[in-house]
Each structure stands twice: as C-alpha cells, then as structure tokens.
Write a structure and sequence with these properties.
Layout lengths: L2 H22 L6 H8 L4 H8 L3 H11 L39 H20 L2
Helix pairs in contact: 4-5
Length: 125
C-alpha cells in the first residue's frame, strides 16, 4: 500500500473515531426528568420517545419543557399551531408561537419528525 493511501486511511480512521466519541458523549435525560415528562404524555408518545436516539430524546425534553429558546438545535421547532395555523414544528411562523407546547404529545411528534428529517438530509436520501 502506498504512502498516500495509508495517509488517507489513517485520516478516515481518525474522523470515524472522533465521530464515535462525539456520539458516545450524548447524555440522556435523567430518570427524574423522563418520569416527569411521561406524566404529561400518553403511552403511545412514551413509546415514541423511548424509540428515539439520545439526541432525539434530549430535543424532545427541550420541546416538552420549552427550554429551547435561543438554541440552534431547536431552530424552526415551535408550538405555533392554532385553529387558524397548522405550522407547528415547521418554523414558518417564527415569532407567532403562543409559547410552550400545550399538547406535550405534539412536542414529541415534532422532535421525532425533526430527527427523521435530519437523518434523511445527512444520508442523502
């Protein structure tokens, strides 16, 4: 194997190791936080939450507790769906959100949809 190929393989291994370290550092919400949230959502959405990645669970927790303000991970994720507006979670009604998700189940759905969109955009599909 020539030097150029060996250098490329070493660089790929370094990047792969860095990515796995970053992914491994995700800390899931505490049991206390999860139990508190589960008291606010139905069983179907609890299962949906449990099926999420660590990153998705943290996003869902932020949305449920409305602790997203000013965080890049929450850009475009809002609770602005009303009787006259169906844009909850689409970001197209920035500045019009009535505040926290009153329906905490919807917060879980928005987090799940956001993570699915993120996966699709990074996989190229």
């Amino acid at each position: 194997m020539n030097h150029k190929k060996l250098s490329s393989l070493a660089a790929l291994a370094l990047v792969a190791g860095t990515v796995s370290q970053i992914e491994a550092k995700c800390t899931s919400p505490s049991t206390r936080q999860v139990n508190s949230m589960f008291a606010k959502i139905d069983l179907n959405h609890q299962k949906m939450y449990n099926d999420m990645s660590c990153e998705g669970q943290n996003l869902a927790m932020q949305l449920v507790n409305q602790s997203c303000a000013g965080k890049n991970s929450c850009a475009g994720l809002n609770s602005c769906k009303t009787a006259n507006n169906s844009c909850a979670g689409k970001g197209s009604c920035k500045g019009n959100s009535p505040g926290p998700f009153t329906d905490k189940n919807k917060a879980i759905e928005v987090a799940k949809k956001h993570m699915a969109n993120k996966r699709a955009s990074t996989s190229g599909y």
